[in-house]
Amino acid sequence: MKKKVIIIGSGIAGLALSVRLKSKGYDVEVFEKNKNVGGKLSDFYLNNFRHDFGPKLFTMPNLIEDIFEDARVDIKKYFKYDKLDIACKYFWDDGHIFNGYSDSQKFINEVHKKFDKEGNKVEEYIFNSKKKFNLVKKIFLEKSLHKISTYLSFDALKGILNFLQLNIFISLNSLNKRYFKDDKLIQLFNRFATYNGSSPYLTSGIMSIIQHLEHDLGVFMPKKGISDISHSLYNLATDLGVKFHFNSEIDKILIKHKSAVGVSINKINYKADIIVSNMDINLTYDRLLKGYKKPFFIKNYQPSSSAVVFYWNMNKSFSNISVHNIIFSRDQMKEFDYIFNRNSIYDDPTVYICSTSKIVKEDAPSGCENWFILINSPFDSGQNWKKIKKNLRNNIIKKINSTLKVDIESNIIGEKILTPVDIENETLSKFGSLYGSSSNSLQSAFIRHPNFSKNINNLYFCGGSVHPGGGIPLCLNSAKIVSDLIN
Ligand SMILES: Cc1cc2nc3c(=O)[nH]c(=O)nc-3n(C[C@H](O)[C@H](O)[C@H](O)COP(=O)(O)OP(=O)(O)OC[C@H]3O[C@@H](n4cnc5c(N)ncnc54)[C@H](O)[C@@H]3O)c2cc1C
């Protein structure tokens, strides 16, 4: 008889896993507390403008291709995407502009053009970033770190022999300063620490591998917007026969003789042979495994940063911005000091602006744009978000106006604002952290909760708060790791 698997949550990892396990012949059911799929990777309409709830940056589409390939289904029937020419356009308020191309040679040429004398160093940086990525991917990103078998391979040996080249024991900022002299270029390369919710002054130099993903392998955009990743995996899962239950918040994992045997909602039990939680690992312990001991490092973890997001419906289009844009803070060190030490947001924060309607025309009415403004923020620890939101709105409007030479206030015809508290409530991520735990210490970049329970049989974990980490590519890898662990 086919084994039955219940997955708690339909975030990107839960969706990917549902397809993977169904393709392997398991009987799969997914329980989702919300009325729709995707978790942080979902979307909504604000009047007639479509907005993606969370992620905007899409790299490594090969990981999605792999899921369809393993299911022996032609991806083109479900999911299409294009490569962006410019991964991100960067602005400084002294008028300096840099196009971060999605192709390494074009990126290097732009550095030669805009940052005189740094071009050769960038070439070396990108080359080393690729080398580091290839060394860690097989052992760290694609396998469970908590199984002996992971270390008994040629790839593991290669990784261990080249350990010192990975720049694990140096901060990202110190590494970048070794390569570059120009403060603006250091600021640009430092920003990649935020991709796992960390500070460049604290997180490990291994994070420099992100440079390879973005400016070498490239940045992509699905034809129907970023949430189409969730929609297409959901469509594939339902076509394969995965059963979804919406508005269904699991409140307990049922355990018998040290094995997970089912889940329950309001005392109604659903039995299964295997349970996988795609819920934030901390809340899985707090709410679904009451009475079971939390591992030490989960109890003492530092949550990753969160965000305040402004979704704006704009009544005109702006020719001087690209799909992804960054307007940098004048003082990056202060900005991160506010986020990680003062639990607040600096008055002059880095402003990220994304407008998917520049290429997904259906996302906004003709001549208009959907803007997503993200400001990195501390996780929720009871701050006065109403006050922070108000100050922040004024500060970012001033900053956008002066840098882009616009007057945007009058162009905003619809608005929704998201704080860390909303992120916690809507996706059940503890303290509203975007990426589970932060990687703000050299070892924490690697130490996350395993993808399986060491004490309870048949219980597994996938998603951004467990190994290998947060962000779309790593969540997809966590699904693959769990699928490989379940035999
Ligand atoms: C504003 C923002 C911007 C981001 N930007 C990027 C980006 O540009 N690029 C990138 O790669 N990543 C980005 N991220 C991070 C990325 O979105 C996440 O790492 C990833 O989507 C997390 O997926 P997940 O599988 O862990 O599940 P989640 O998206 O956290 O979803 C978990 C799901 O489980 C459900 N659930 C929880 N508990 C229960 C329960 N008890 N019963 C039933 N259902 C339950 C929730 O409702 C939710 O749907 C961003 C995130 C946010 C919020």
Explained architecture:
The chain is an alpha/beta fold and 487 residues long. It folds into three domains: 4-40 and 61-72 and 226-301 and 445-485, FAD/NAD(P)-binding domain; 105-211, no CATH class; 306-377 and 381-418. It is 34% helix and 19% strand. The chain has helices at residues 12-23, 62-70, 104-114, 119-141, 148-151, 154-161, 172-179, 183-190, 210-217, 228-240, 281-288, 296-299, 332-340, 385-404, 420-427, 472-485; strands spanning 4-8, 27-31, 43-46, 49-52, 81-83, 86-91, 97-101, 220-222, 243-245, 252-256, 259-265, 268-271, 274-277, 306-314, 324-327, 351-354, 369-377, 412-418, 459-461. A hairpin with a 5-residue loop joins strand 6 and strand 7. The longest helix has 23 residues, at 119-141.
CATH topology of the largest domain: FAD/NAD(P)-binding domain
- Fraction of residues in β-strands: 15-25%
CATH level-4 homologous superfamily of the largest domain: FAD/NAD(P)-binding domain
**Low-confidence regions:** none
Q: Termini separation (Å)?
A: 14 Å
* CATH architectural name of the largest domain: 3-Layer(bba) Sandwich
Q: List the strand order in the largest sheet.
A: 7-6-15-16-17-14-18
Total domain modules: 3
- Principal-axes shape call: globular
Largest sheet: 7 strands, mixed
In the CATH scheme, the class of the largest domain would be: Alpha Beta
Please work out how many helical segments DSSP would assign: 16
Spatial extent as radius of gyration: 22 Å
Helix content: 25-40%
- Mean pLDDT reading: 92
Report the bound ligands by name, code or SMILES. flavin-adenine dinucleotide
Query: How many β-strand stretches?
Result: 19
Structural class designation: alpha/beta
